[in-house]
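not sure who needs this but someone in the group chat was asking about LacI family transcriptional regulator from Ferroacidibacillus organovorans so here u go. i didnt clean anything up, its just raw.
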Amino acid sequence: MVAEHAGVSIPTVSRVLNSPDRVREETKQKVLDVVRTLGFYPNENARRLRTHEVQAIGVIVPHIRDFFFSEIYKGMSEAAEAAGVQIFLHDALQRQERLYEGFPLLKSKGCSGVILVSAYVSRDFETWMSRAGIPVVLALTESETGAIPAFKVDDVQASFDAVAHLITRGHRRIGIISGPDEDPTAGRNRLQGYQSALRHYNIPLDPALIAYGAFRFEHGYEGMSQLLLRQGDEPLTAVYAVSDEMAVGAARCLYDRGIRVPEDVSVVGFDNIRLASLVTPTLTTVAQPFEEIGSEAVVTLLDMIHQNITEQQKGTRYLPHRIVTRESTRFYAYDSS
């Protein structure tokens, strides 16, 4: 069916699904477009799903270079090993088309289910996955409808707590380097938590103290530069970056301008990746339980494959976060004179 719709031979379809590097890019894209449209997957894997024979599961990540990946993968691998299941990894390389390609490619390798890590799941993407005919669990993200089992922290509450950490230490001029606005999980939700904390403590929201980035070091550096340019006559005394990598970039920007952390500006991050405890000064941050998220995602995916999922496992499950206080924040006393 795929070969006919794509106008290629059956062996070509097989090569695209099993050895894509051996196929011309134009042909590969044509076949994968048909695969996505038809929701086609090889028959061998369909047989495994029918008999509940599970040998492997797949994991799709936006980019394997993400600092948190080794920690979440540790939880996944331990749970998979305990269940006697192999894990196949697909790196989307931050490209949307590779994200979609991961599902048929992993299924063609015998994966009976997929864990999608961190990527934003729109309604359209959720609809597409429902047609793909393979169980899916989300980690560090959630679907817009909340219908797909997902494991993450409550980004709104976690951000509220991060900003409250600063406010209760005397800070009032607090900037934020938020995630992309089109990403509601780590973008709008974490920004919402920042705004909620300011409202709760009766601190006026200053739009000039909001910058945006895509979670990388360089975006934190650039975001901090923007905040310093826009801060006005009353300088900011603290900044909250919604990823540790951006927080480290922000701290480097401050260092390059002769601004001390935390003596002049306190810095808070989000994630508690290993880097947070290695930089100088060490980084105060929101800790996510990465290993637990990874293991819970595997256990739930296997339950879905075996059709043993409970009502409690459906939808989004928020795991507890915590504030880890280190050297990058301090108490601030305003001069009342």
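also The CA atoms of residues 62 and 161 lie 27 Å apart. if thats useful
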